[in-house]
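sorry to bug you again but im stuck and you know this stuff better than me. theres a chain ive been looking at and ive put its sequence and its fold in token form underneath. id like you to explain what the token line says about the fold, in plain words if possible. anything you notice is useful, everything is just below.
___
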Amino acid sequence: MIRTQVYLPEELYGHIQLLAKRDKKVSAQVIRELLTTGLKKVAQEKKTNAGDALLRLAKIGARGPKDLSIHHDKYLYEE
């Protein structure tokens, strides 16, 4: 594990302390679990499915980039 230091607002710190006490865990474990959950949620939201990517390509239409047929993966999977 890597040790790090983070500044938290008092209200947030209080919530973490309450969760830790309620679940009989140390605050560091509560923070790790919350970060893991939050990062998974963000990753899920960022995933684009193929249908959305194809719709974005269709919006480009005839005025799209001239290299679209060659670099279609770049336009499909990069935002």
